[in-house]
Amino acid sequence: MTSSRVGRGRHAHGALVEGGTTDRDALGMGIVRSARLKPPPRIPSWVLKVVMAVTGVVFALFVLVHMIGNLKVFTGAEHFNEYAHWLRTVLQPFLPYEGLLWILRIALMVALVAHVWSAALIWRRGRASRGRHRRPGMWVKNFTARTMVVTGIVLLGFVVFHVLDLTTGTAGVAVDTFQPATPSTAHAYENLVSSLQRPWVALAYMVSMLALFLHLAHGLWTVVSDVGFTGVRLRTVAWWVAGVVALAVMLGNILIPIAVLMGVVA
Amino acid sequence: MKLVMDVWRQAAPGEAGHYETHEVDDATPEMSLLELLDRLNFALVENDREPVAFESDCREGICGACGITVDGIPHGPQQNTPSCHQRLASFHDGQRIRLEPLRSAAYPVIRDLVVDRSALDRIIVAGGHVAVPGGSAPDADALLVSHERAEQALDMAACIGCGACVAACPNGAAHLFVGSKLAHLSLLPTGRQERGKRARAMLNEMEQDFGPCSLYGECAKVCPANIPLTAIAAVNKEGLRSFFRHKDD
Ligand code: HEM
Ligand code: FES
């Protein structure tokens, strides 16, 4: 055995009380205790991390494309509404009305369930493996890592709110003047602008984008390890891509509520 | 210099532990953390009291036996330095410090500052070794290994198995340890023969004691062997590779 540890003598200063025989042997003789903390999980944690990485990248690509689409709001109401209408009628007659949108919705829904479910398992397993004594005093640099659950929950809340506000137009969340899209027209611009003219909505939207930035900056960097990239150059490039994508998504999206509040978009 | 220590005392595994406060008045900045404990134990024994149990062997940073938690940080305040090399110069005269064992659910406390790190040994037993017969030594140029690859393997082989990475991790993950072993052994010709089998065995063993990696990066900060965070990626790399390839090598 080429292990660095097995068979190495370890010296404790001080004798052990009786009763811990196995452990005393382990200590003095390098004997390996065989009791494990838990049985092998049905789905290993490293597989859960791959699931998080894949679903996380799906979300990241979605929010990136979505942000670019959102910027069309600066090209005026007509253009923006045409874009919203196009999204619903694209690939007709191969796909029915809203066909592409439904494909995306279902894919994102499946990814969301897998992502949140894996996150919950990872969080629980991490706490159980750490045990009673929490790790204190971590450095500032991993602030984003430490807040993944918090920023994730903010995002989950935002997603629910966002769909009720601008997709389904549910009363109580959406503006009273909400007009649903029809097979002939869309009113995305009017709905968006009147929603963001409510200051609390604009604020919540901006806070959510900050959470998205923090979540993506750490998340995309984590993806690099989860898919097993070990090359130095690849990792450097990926670190930058993660930061730039996260920043771009946040800045692009935050421009919109600011423009609405300042009256630039009305 | 004077140091006030809150030291974790625990008589046996499974028992409740507590902090006990002690003072050492004649410490010097060039003393190591372990020498401070020696000093304390000397005084305790002289007063007919139980000395504080802690582990050490080489005291020169190569064996991995030492490792205590100082103010929450495994090994101590100096980054990438084992407890036996931590100098008291990191502390100021009169400072109060907290000494406790390496913390993780996978490391039951045996006594005071000594923990049982069998969980790491089980991973090594599962696959952290080369079990193919190597035969007699071949000619030096029969198996070519590039200089770069040899250096990478050596960097990863530097792990001394102290287990501080696990204690630094808020998730109790052993990815730095496992990743360094996997990377080291998969980079070299003999070890590569069992690459797939090894990854499956080690990961399966790892899952039974240790947590998931959320990339906090705390492990690489305490590692006395300077294993880079890249080692973490080797865990999933080898896991994915063996999963899709499903072969022994
Ligand atoms: C727009 C929505 C979201 C995006 C773009 C996103 C993106 C990502 C990415 C890229 C990762 C890294 C995956 C990896 O581990 O490799 C990640 C991790 C994570 N996500 Fe999300 N996510 C979103 C929503 C959520 C939600 C709704 C939750 C939970 C309520 C959540 C919780 C987490 C947690 C806890 C992690 C860290 C897992 C770990 O400990 O490693 N995310 N996310
Ligand atoms: S005692 Fe050997 S590494 Fe510290």
What does this protein look like?
- The complex is a heterodimer of chains A (266) and B (249).
- Mean pLDDT of chain A is 88; it is low at 1-21.
- Chain A is elongated and about 80 Å long.
- Chain A has a single domain (45-261), classed as 3 helical TM bundles of succinate and fumarate reductases (Up-down Bundle).
- The termini of chain A are far apart.
- Chain A has helices at residues 21-29, 45-70, 77-89, 99-130, 143-146, 148-167, 188-196, 199-226, 232-261; one strand at 11-12.
- Chain A is mainly alpha-helical and 266 residues long.
- Chain B is an alpha+beta fold and 249 residues long.
- Chain B has two domains: 3-111, Beta-grasp domain (Ubiquitin-like (UB roll)); 118-244, Fumarate Reductase Iron-sulfur Protein, Chain B, domain 2 (Orthogonal Bundle), CATH 1.10.1060.
- In chain B, 36% of the residues lie in helices and 13% in strands.
- In chain B, helix 3 (147-157) packs antiparallel against helix 5 (175-186) and helix 5 packs across helix 9 (230-245).
- The model of chain B has no long low-confidence stretch (mean pLDDT 95).
- The interface between A and B is large, with 72 and 79 residues.
- Strand 1 of chain A pairs antiparallel with strand 3 (55-56) of chain B.
- The structure holds protoporphyrin IX containing FE and FE2/S2 (inorganic) cluster.
- FE2/S2 (inorganic) cluster binds at residues 56-59, 61-66, 82-84 of chain B.
- Residues 56-59, 61-66, 82-84 of chain B line the site of FE2/S2 (inorganic) cluster.
- Chain B: GO terms for molecular function: 2 iron, 2 sulfur cluster binding; 3 iron, 4 sulfur cluster binding; 4 iron, 4 sulfur cluster binding; electron transfer activity; metal ion binding; succinate dehydrogenase (quinone) activity.
- Chain B: Its EC number is 1.3.5.1.
- Chain B: Residues 150-179 form the 4Fe-4S ferredoxin-type domain.
- Chain B: Belongs to the succinate dehydrogenase/fumarate reductase iron-sulfur protein family.
- Chain B: Its cofactor is [4Fe-4S] cluster; [2Fe-2S] cluster; [3Fe-4S] cluster.
